[in-house]
Write a structure and sequence with these properties.
Blueprint (H helix, E strand, L loop, with lengths): L1 H13 L8 H11 L5 E2 L1 H8 L5 H12 L9 E2 H13 L2 H11 L10 E3 H22 L2 H7 L7 H12 L9 E3 H9 L2 H23 L13 H4 L17 E3 L13 H9 L8 E7 H4 L3 H8 L5 E7 L4 E6 L16 E6 L3 E4 L9 E3 L8 E7 L2 E7 L4 E3 L18 E12 L6 H14 L2 H9 L2 E4 L2 E4 L4
Helix pairs in contact: 2-11, 4-6, 4-7, 5-11, 7-9, 7-11
Length: 472
Amino acid sequence: MGNLASSSTKLAEKCPMLEKSELPLVASSFRLVSKNSDKCKEEDLMKFWGSQMDPRLAQYITNFLFGPLGSRAGFVELPRFAELYVYTVRGTRDERINVLLCSLGQSPDSESTEIAYPLIKEYVEAVVSSYMRAIRLEGGPEFKSWESRGFRIVKECIQKLAESLAYDVVQQGTQKVTRADAERWLGLNPIFLKMLEHVFSHLYNYRNVKNSSDEKRKDADGDESKASKRKEHVPQQEVVLHTMLPLCEGLQYMPDYPAFTDLSQMLFVNANLPTAQQNKWRFLFSSQIHGESFSTLLGRIVDQGPTVLIVEDSNGYIFGGYATESWALGPNYLGNDTSFLFTLRPKMRTFSASGYNDHYQYLNLHQQTMPNGLGLGGQHNYWGLWLDSEYGEGECSESCTTFKGYFQMSATKKFTVRNVEVWGVGDKPVKENESEESSVRSVLDGNADSKAMLKMSGREQYSDGYREEPKD
C-alpha cells in the first residue's frame, strides 16, 4: 500500500492537471504505449492507437505530442500525454483551441494566427471519421441495433457531416479562420465537442479494457510483462462510452432493412433532437415496406408522440423534419419551437424555429376547403415540407418563414416521392385511459405462474376479483 500511495503521489505531482480519478487511467495508458518507460516514442504510440482512428487524426495527434515536422521530438513524456487527455475530454474552449492549433502545426500563443478553412475542415473530418470508427469498434447496443438491420457507415456521408459541422467557422466572404472565429465556432458546436471527447476517451480507455481482460501480458520475447509484476498496478474498470446514436426499435424481424440513409445521417438528426427524445427511435412507417399509401402512413403515425419524418425525392435529395407532438387530424397547426427541418443530401443542415409563426406541423384529410396532406412549416402553397394526400406528390417552397436559414430542400419545388420513413422518437406516450385499460387487463389476465399459485391456494380468478373455489 505504501508503494501504491507513493506512486500516486508522484503521478499527481507530475500531472497536476489530472483529477484523482483520472490518474490511474492516464498512467496505465501511458505505461502501455511507452512499454513501461518514462518516455514514449511515436512509433510505439501508433502501434496501439493507429488502428483506432482516421490516419489524419493520427498525424494531428503526433504534431501535438511530438511537435511539427522539422522540429519533432523523439519522444513524449507523461505530462504532455496527460495534457492531451485533459484538453480534449474536458478542456476549456481555450485549451481545445490550443490542441487544434498545435495539431495543425500552428503556434497557440499568437492571437493573430490565421488558418485556411480547408485545414479546419479536414481536422473536423478526421475527428468525425474517427468517431464513427470508434463507435463501430466499440460495438455498443445502439450501434448494433442499426448495423444488424442493414444500416451502414458511408464515407461520403461522413464527409458531408463534417462539412455541416465546420462550414460556419469562417465569416462570410473569407476563407481564413482566426483564433476568435475558432473560439466562437467551438462555443456553438456541441456535437463536435461530444465527438472530440468520445474519440479521446476511446483512445485512452480502449487499451485498458483490452488489457484488463488479459491475466498476463507477454512481451516480444515471451516473458511476462513488467506491468503484470508491478505492485502498484491499478486494475482499470471497463468504461461504457455513450454514443449519439439512439437505440433502434421495431426492426427485430427485418435483418436486411432497405435503408436509404446511413448511420452518420441518423446520428446527425438525433443529435439535434431534444435530449428526452435521443435515447431511441421506434420504427413506424416505410413506403418500401408498408406500400405507397397516404392512409397507411397516416394510420401508422397518429398518436405516436414526437416523430422524425425522412423523405427522398426522385432526384436523390434526402430531407425531413422533426414534429414535436403526436400527429392528429384537424384544421389547426400543432407543435412547438423545438421543431426543426433538416436536409441530409446533398448537404446536411438543420433549420430551427424562427419564432415568426407557429406553423410547425399540420395534418388533414377529406376536406373541401382545407389543404389535404401533411405539412411541416410555412402555409398553403408555401410549405417548408408538404406531402399531399395524393400519395407521391410533395412540395418544398423556396422560402419558409417558420424556420430560420431555410432553403429549398428538394431538387425542385414540386417533387415526386421516392421513399418516405417515419420514426417515433423517445418513449411512446401512454394515454391515461390506455394505462388504466392495461392495468385492468394485466389483473384480469395475469400470467401462468400467478394463476397456478392461485390454484394451489384454493382460489380462482374471476372477472370481478378472486374467490374461494367451491368445495365438493
